[in-house]
Amino acid sequence: MKLSERYNRVNLIATIVIMLITGAIYYLAISLILTNQKDNSLEVEEHEIFDYVKLNHHLPQVFESKDQQITFISAEPNSVKREFFNTTYYREKDEAESGRGLISSVTVGGRYYKILIVESKVETEDLIQIIFGITIGVILLLLLVLVITNRLILGRLWQPFYGILSELKLFNVTDNREMPMSNTSIDEFNELQAEVSAMAERVKKDYKDLKTFTENASHELLTPIAVINSKLDTLIQTENFSEHQSKLLNDLYSAVSRLSRLNQSLLLLVKIENKLLNDRQHLDLQELIEELLYQLEDIFGDKEITVTSSLSEKEIEASNYLIEILLNNLIINAVRHNRTGGEIIINLTAENLTIKNTGEQIALNPENIFTRFHKASTSEGSGLGLTISKQICESLGYQLVYSYEAPYHIFTVTF
Amino acid sequence: MKILIIEDEEGLRESIEEYFTEAGNICETAASYTAALAKVELYRYDCILLDITLPGGNGIDILKTLKANNYTDGVLIISAKNSLDDRLQGLDLGADDYLVKPFHLSELKARVSAIIRRKMFNGSNVLNFNELNIDLMAKTVAVNGIPVKFTRKEFALLIYFISNKGKVISKNAIAEHLWGDGIDLANNFDFIYSHIKNIRKKIMEAGGKDYIYAAYGMGYKFADQ
After folding, report:
1. What mean pLDDT is predicted for residues B95-101?
2. Which of B:49-68 have CB within 8 Å of A?
3. Which residue of A has its CA nearest to B102?
4. CA-CA distance, B142 to B153, in Å (whole number)?
5. What are the two backbone dihedrals, phi and then psi, of residue A403, each rounded to the nearest 5 degrees?
6. Do A380 and B176 touch (CB under 8 A)?
7. Across the interface, do B184 and A381 touch by the CB < 8 Å criterion?
8. Contact at 8 Å (CB) between B28 and B46?
């Protein structure tokens, strides 16, 4: 639920409840006052009767009046208790109206009379209705105005908040873009913005430090690796090795070459992330793939892998270096995780490139195959190949997705 | 051949010097920017191996000095920085090649030989080894004057061998030279053997000698023993 919606809901319910309660109190108060007034007028009438009786010693004559009916009824002495009461007022024929009455008593010439004065309350009620109607109208108008202003003001007030939110959504640690400061006169939002910007800067700085560390560490490693490599190359020039020593040297060679490749991969990742490889060339993808397949012929042969390719013409603008790495990684990956005597199917169309390979008969988890150093325990790779491929695709605006359709593992690059 | 090795890392410098020192070669070394500059200003070399990051200065400046004086020494940059900018800058300034650390000494030797060959033969580029005549431009091989057809990889491998004649080349170095980075998945390099077998067979069928020797299961050596 949106904040404004929530706020409006609470606000509206509270307003309506309070308005209803005030309305009721208002209604009661007005009707009480008006009844009181009616009672006064009844009392005035009563006094007039008393005065008349005192002066003339007989009951006044009763005239038909529009709004008032006075009746005298003889009664047992002291049987009448003086009281006001609500009643029905019959004006001509059977038209019933609400009325207010007063029962009183008077003694005229030793005879006891009960006085019944009834007045129509119709005008009073009309008045109440009008007042009540106006009140309700005002309440409704007030509510409407409240809702509209709330919506407008809240929308405007929260504008900076939504601005900050959309900035946060766009936030990317690898991005060098500064967060734009939107000016707002509201302290809370200014503070929020300042904190968010500061946090973003910290995160970026930490990330940059980490990246610089990786880069420096990898660079520093290069020289010792180069020394080991050259010493090994020198060592094998000295003749007369036993079979055992040869085996040890071979193992050393593979370990060093793996170490060096791992190092290169780390450096490459940093470079892609730093967007240091932004050169663009016109590339014929079909030709590049054909060349690569020729290059890797022996490797396919070694694993007895059948490669089927259906390549249509596709030209792209990209860094030659990156595209070669991407293709190499994906195809080598298809070989590495293949079984002896397996199959690789490469398909290139104007929209995408798919590389299918046989292998383990179980789908991989598409969530983590692209994460760093995620690899099968049997894999001899660095665990960075797919991460690099993904990064390359992202930097070129392509999509790289994995899917499994038995018996093929499929990697698709969508241009 | 006269070669200058400008490299501050002692271990690497010594290995390169040892690998390049053979009959007919003179190797000199420089470990710092000033030492390198002094040598470069005094003597001419067939090829200079130039490290970019040096104590006291930048290797690129040495390259600039060479070019400013119109010296025609071949220059091969060896750098730990595999950055495109460096590579392009180096090559733009007139370096002949660019090799990224770490590398195999045999790869370095092959690149240096190629540079020197280009300088010496002014592009005619024919490589002769006993009865073998290799035209590097036309990419053809003749044994005792008889043309022999080699595949692209066999041709590349033969040149690699001749550039490193008398040296044991590890299977790793061969594999990386022919297949690049993709090679790490193959633990056994049996498929190298099939190429070597083919080269041997083709040369011998044309009446040539067998120059390729296996070295203790570690690699191969091309030599006229």
Report:
1. 88
2. none
3. A226
4. 16
5. -145, 165
6. no
7. yes
8. no
Could you list the beta-strand ranges (E) of chain B: 2-6, 26-30, 47-51, 53-54, 57-58, 74-79, 97-100, 126-129, 132-135, 140-143, 146-148, 168-170, 212-215, 219-222
How far apart CA A407 and CA A2 sit, in angstroms, is 48
Name the one residue in this structure whose structure tokens are 């040149």: B159
In order of A25, A34, A47, A66, the CA distances from A99 in angstroms are: 22, 12, 20, 12
What DSSP assignment string belongs to A68-95? EEEEEEE--TT----EEEEEEEEETTTE
Contact residues, chain A, for B187 at CB < 8 Å? 254, 380
Please give the average per-residue pLDDT across B11-33, as a whole number.
89
Closest Cα in chain B to A250 = B218
> Which helix or strand (DSSP H or E) is residue A403 part of?
strand A399-405
**pLDDT, tens digit, 9 for 90 and up, residues A316-339:** 888 888 888 889 889 888 888 888
Q: B86: nearest CA in chain A?
A: A276
Task: Give the Cα separation of A297 and A307 in Å (integer).
Answer: 9
- CA-closest candidate to residue B148, choices B81, B68, B72, B204: B204
Tens of pLDDT along B164-185? 888 889 888 888 888 876 566 5
Which B positions 158-197 lie with beta carbon below 8 A of chain A? 167-168, 170-173, 176, 179-188, 190-191, 194-195
Q: Which residues contact A327 (CB under 8 A, 6 or more apart)?
A: A288, A289, A292
Residues of A in contact with B218 (CB under 8 A): 236, 241, 246, 249-250, 253
Distance in Å, alpha carbon of B122 to nearest chain A alpha carbon? 30
User: Can you say how many angstroms the Cα of residue A105 is from the centroid of all Cα atoms in its chain?
Assistant: 77
Nearest CA in chain B to A245: B216
Question: Does the structure's ipTM exceed the value 0.95?
Answer: no
Strand pairing report for B126-129 and B97-100: unpaired
Within 143-202 of A, beta carbons closer than 8 Å to B belong to none
Q: Where are the beta strands (DSSP E) in A109-198?
A: 111-120
Cβ of A257 within 8 Å of Cβ of B172? The answer is yes
Structure tokens at B1: 């051949």
* Contact between chains at B15 and A222 (C-beta distance less than 8 A): no
Strand ranges in B59-211 using DSSP code E only, listed in sequence order: 74-79, 97-100, 126-129, 132-135, 140-143, 146-148, 168-170
